[in-house]
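cron nightly-structures :: item 1 of 1
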Amino acid sequence: MRDTRSRVATAPVAQRSSWSAPATEPAPIPSLAPPAPNGVSAEDLRQYRVALAIAARRFKQYPLEARESRWEGRVEIALSASAGQRVPHASLVHSSGYRALDEQALSMVAQAAAVTPLPESLQGAEIRVLLPIEFSLEATR
């Protein structure tokens, strides 16, 4: 199998930084998006990821079976697009361990992709966006 990872632009999950600037100057905001390897704007990819995350929240529902069973977990979904695709494809990257939570996360990201237009600068490019979805009963109270 051929490895195509080096050509796919991926929007990273936000990371913490221990970087700090001298107190005399305002600290610059470090970019969370590294330069994309295939000529795609890292900033455009980051903004698309944020727009997807906001849209996905609108479709989030805690599955009844999971709520009643007190299941919680984190699911990671990859949204991939390439030239010729009208709507990006959602796939499971990391399971919560519960099928109901995994299926809900896939559904909400797929719905978000359907209503979040791919920016013009990303159209025709091969991209991959990672979206973590957290299911917590504490957060739903």
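cron nightly-structures :: done
The radius of gyration is 17 Å.
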